[in-house]
Amino acid sequence: MSNYKAVLLDFGNVIININPELTVEAFAEISGKSVERIRQKITDSQLFRRYESGMFDDDEFREIVRQTIGYPFSDHEIDKAWNSLLLDVPNKRVELLLELKGRYPLYLLSNTNNIHIKASNKIFQARHGISSIELLFNKLFLSYEMGLWKPDEEIYLKVLEEIGMPAGDVLFIDDNELNIQTAKEIGFQTIFHDPQSRDLTDYFDL
Predict the structure, then answer these.
(1) What is the pLDDT of residue 206?
(2) Extents of the domains making up the chain
């Protein structure tokens, strides 16, 4: 890893701990259907990718969840189950983000959705007194707002266009190998992050 001039971070399991299986389990518990069946329905429908690529808004998403799973969930039940995958953000990571932003242009690039961003902001407010994750970064690049999705090349090129830097000046950290592979091919400096063995704070000596 050579000298970089900006840092671009993924969100889930890099900054905020997540466990998508908890969402599957929550939908299964409410609907009375098996975990395996719910998981298969979500996978087959490409629900995450479609919603997080901005293909439909929150209300449309909730209706598609009802149709996909075949159960008349309330809006509240859907949001609660959907957000159950969001866990905690250790203090040391928040401290690192504040330190990084003081030294480098700091950006977020996440496959995410409006419901999760709203819930994440509440987590940051309740646990760290930070009202919005926007305050921690120079700019957020969110898939559902961009109408794009990692690991498609176009989303990385859009980021570079927006920040006005060549890929070689940007350090990108993500926990998905496909996302890292595309970024590396474009020329980013990259770190594949394994959340089971490393913490984001391990990569920086500030």
Answers:
(1) 73
(2) 6-17+89-203, 21-83
